[in-house]
Amino acid sequence: MKKVIYSFLFILAFISSSYAIEPLEIISSEIKIIDGLDYRIVLLEFKNNTDKAIIGAHLLIKFLDVFKEKCKYRWGLDVKPEWADFRTDDYPDQIFHIPPGETYKDENYTSWSTFPFTNPHYIDEIKIIRIAFEDGEILVFEEEKGKKEEIVKEQFEPEDPLKIESWKWSNVDYADWIKIEGYVKNYSKKTYSDVRIIITAEDANDNYLGNGDSYLDPDIISPEGTSNFSILIFDAQCHTNSLKISYKFDWD
Questions:
Q1: Which of 13, 39, 44, 156 has its CA 20 to 30 A from that of 61?
Q2: What pLDDT score does 17 carry?
Q3: What pLDDT score was predicted for residue 112?
Q4: For residue 27, how many other CB atoms are within 10 A of its CB?
Q5: What is the domain extent for residue 184?
Q6: CB-based contact 213:233 (threshold 8 Å)
């Protein structure tokens, strides 16, 4: 059975995709006092390490006081929670949208208050227990009761396992040819062999220039490995400053 993967890209754009054990990464965090009052909020900066937009998150945060001791809960409950609970979907007036590979600092999330924990000065620990993607997929990393679920890399297996990582083009001076060369990266956990890449070229004005194909070299591409390609588009020259291509892969 043959499988064909379609993608589209533009020249001068660097192509990359990442699948990580931490699909939503917290790259900075702080507690901020609002308007000089003893009212504190949490400011977090996120990075989306997946290839899909993230639109929601459920977090648990543990605070420490000025002496770096566990913060006390404001109400006298028999069971005093250690974790503050934050959900982006609790505040529908706020926009939480992180495109693939981009970062986002939620400076407008003033509703993410440290109340009802008293005198928090430091963030001790943050757990991300659920994220929601724009396409409707939801990933759960920890159950509500705190039972840790095993996170397996298969959850982040990409739909497009092979992608062009970098490429360039040129007109061949001694003939009416366009040369396109670059390399492909394998973002899956599978090993592929005898992979053929088929490229269709257009100029910046969407004029069709032709297509060409070749096999990747080396012919075996392991997980996280790369393989090169070089393709000639015959009877064609590109007379615009940029070229755009679409491509697909074919393997047995």
A1: 156
A2: 34
A3: 67
A4: 10
A5: 3-17+158-251
A6: no
**Stretches in the chain below the pLDDT threshold 50:** 1-20, 77-79, 91-93, 110, 144-157
Task: Based on the fold, state whether residues 142 and 170 are members of the same structural domain.
Answer: no
What are all long-range contacts of 187-190, with beta carbons under 8 Å and residues at least 24 apart?
187/17, 187/18, 187/19, 187/158, 187/160, 187/161, 187/162, 187/163, 187/224, 188/157, 188/158, 188/161, 188/162, 188/223, 189/153, 189/154, 189/157, 189/223, 190/161, 190/223
Taking a C-beta distance cutoff of 8 angstroms, is the pair 134, 101 a contact?
no
- Beta bridge pairs of residue 246: 8, 200
pLDDT tens readout for residues 4-50: 444 434 333 333 333 335 888 888 888 877 665 556 788 888 899 98
Measure CA 210 to chain center.
Answer: 32
Residues 140 and 172 in one domain: no
DSSP characters over 202-217: EETT--EEEEEEEE-B
Q: Take residue 219 and report the two structure tokens written for it.
A: 């012919």
Query: Which residue matches tokens 């015959």?
Result: 234
pLDDT computed for residue 21 by the predictor = 57
Mark 44-76 as b/e (b = at least 16 C-beta within 10 Å): bebbbbbbbebbbbbbbbbbbeeeeeebeeeee
DSSP letter assigned to residue 142: B
Tokens of 69: 């001791």
72: left (phi over 0), alpha (psi -120 to 50) or beta: beta
Whichever domain contains 236, its CATH number is: 2.60.40.1620
